[in-house]
Write a structure and sequence with these properties.
Layout: E1 2-6, H1 16-24, H2 35-56, E2 64-70, E3 77-79, E4 85-92, E5 109-112, E6 117-119, E7 128-130, E8 145-150, E9 154-160, H3 173-176, E10 181-182, H4 192-206, E11 212-216, E12 221-224, H5 234-239
Antiparallel strand pairs: 1-2, 2-9, 3-6, 4-9, 4-10, 5-6, 7-8, 11-12
Helix pairs in contact: 1-4, 2-4
Length: 246
Amino acid sequence: MLTVCVSGSEQDLATTGSLMLELFHATTTAYVDSTGQLDYLGTLVRRASAWAERYLGRGPLLLQVYSETLAGAGDNALTLSRRPVMSVLRLFDATSTGTATEFCSTDYRVEDAEAGFLGRDAGFAWTAQFAHAETCFSLGLARSPLPGRLERPWLCEYAAGWVPIGGVTTSSPVYSTAGPNGTTTTGRTLPEDIEQAVVLKAAEWWNGRGGVESERVGDLGVTYRAPSADALGPAESLLEPYRSLA
């Protein structure tokens, strides 16, 4: 189970100013003739930000604090579902914090922030449920693990996601929860490629193309770009290295 404990106040992955630069190559509103149009640019940025999160398939991209129950695989790593991992607040060996053992910060570490791996030298016991008796699958030697029946006794509270464009302050709730395992940067960590992809997608919608590959004036013909890996648009191409394969 995954629960958001503290959500960030920022959701946009680009700024209206960046979109205006892409569209008009100026930082002025001279090419926007109404407040309504300026608001619409902001709406396009929000829509394109949501599109980018869906396209990447890895959940919210900006920094939030989570509580997650996890299954052990019998090795020395737990895989957190939200990433990149900024810091780990607390780790328990059971989901009831009243009776669980809380590990010291020296007992574990962020092994790979981008992959979401949390490491522990003592390991994380395999949490599969086993049959109550011998079955045909065990050949009479031992109880068999039940397919698809993994318990999730490990409880981890952690901060994950990229720091937004404007950064965060040390008084921000999403930052002040930072634990000893990980980083505590307040400056922007959101990759510029993701910001530019959002800008390019919003610009497509502003120009009314939305995936149009070609147009024809005679008989008003329109050809749409095929949604294949061989025909990625500029925005999609920028996002591909960050896309989740899970």
